[in-house]
């Protein structure tokens, strides 16, 4: 697209859509809501509802964003979302082949819903629209659109990690699925490791070839580009919201309830990829080892339930209830509860105040595409007295937030050591580390992310 030509309308397509007035507890929805607000355009996806008619498109508008959503039938929801996307692809992409439950009818449902999305989209598209498809739910969407004659630029962003080819090939029918990525013009990933995995897969499993300018040519002759685009947050606004949130009644209540104890915070969807049982065990390890810290600290874990129709998610919920009960039973005193475990989601504004109140954020996923909570925590700190981020080296965010205390989440002793170090860290070191991370987030915010992807897609 030439520099002087007005860019075409942006059409974002994702399974999860952040509809107006909804709390968006996932990173994709919260990030794309901000990106869409700035640029405007059409956002197409699932309404979040199960209905009997998926042929009807619901339209609504919020400022410059036009929303078009469809309900999913019970069968489509179970096979596409709860089935193939979240019981086969999600564990595979998060390095958990042991949890992959591949079922042929789930794959059929996944392909059917992708075709359904394509059927709806062709009715909504204009010739100069720039289409940006998001995440593992919609890998074959560009191929289905191309079959229907769509010639527009189509980009794809994968919000999860991408594991090495050796793992990807364990998925039955992997080639038929992943080869369709070649129908996109540009594929975005969070980290260099994810990009290497994509290249390796196409070169060694699909029989593709690298072309000048980082292009990858697939076996069918189509070529596409791929690049690293780490997603981010609206840094300045998040920081401002946190400053203002300090005055909210809920934040005062939290502060009063702490009685000068240092707050450690974790905020994660209740997902096995987030390493919550390992985190609870690491905290217990610290309590066991450092009795001087008893009554001095409080760990608040916010964990809104997620994907409750998938059995592994119900199981992790039971496991955490048991662990939290066990740890509190063992270490609590009449006037102190070591873990506050809350299965509820909170509006973003309130979260920013919680982050600012916390001396430490304990964010230890076993694998995570990015982890926006880590970035939000940093942006919310008081520059004069910032808290410390303890972060899993397996979150995409660790590639940029190198001044966090980086840990292997599977090692309770290592996490407990980092936690203790964070709690005792002198102000000077806290400030140095925070400043370095904040500079990264100020330069690479969500606007920069969105612009860099779309500029590459349209150039
Ligand atoms: O839509 P749900 O099934 O309720 O799940 C919520 C979202 O979870 C995942 O989020 C990812 O995207 C974030 C932003 O890029 C990233 O920081 C995080 O590491 C990822 O886990 C999922 O990829 C989304 O599709 C879901 O909407
Ligand atoms: O109660 C909650 C819990 C989480 N979030 C938001 O949900 C997003 C989670 O994104 P992240 O990338 O950390 O993980 P994901 O859930 O997408 O895997 C962040 O913007 C959080 O602020 C929220 O608004 N309320």
UniProtKB/TrEMBL annotation:
Function: Probably involved in the osmoprotection via the biosynthesis of trehalose. Catalyzes the transfer of glucose from UDP-alpha-D-glucose (UDP-Glc) to D-glucose 6-phosphate (Glc-6-P) to form trehalose-6-phosphate. Acts with retention of the anomeric configuration of the UDP-sugar donor.
Source organism per UniProt: Dyella ginsengisoli
Top-rank lineage group of the source organism: Bacteria
Protein name: Trehalose-6-phosphate synthase
Subunit (UniProt): Homotetramer.
Signal peptide residues on this chain, from the entry's feature table: none
Family affiliation: Belongs to the glycosyltransferase 20 family.
E.C. code: 2.4.1.15
Annotated catalysed reactions: D-glucose 6-phosphate + UDP-alpha-D-glucose = alpha,alpha-trehalose 6-phosphate + UDP + H(+)
Gene name in the database record: otsA
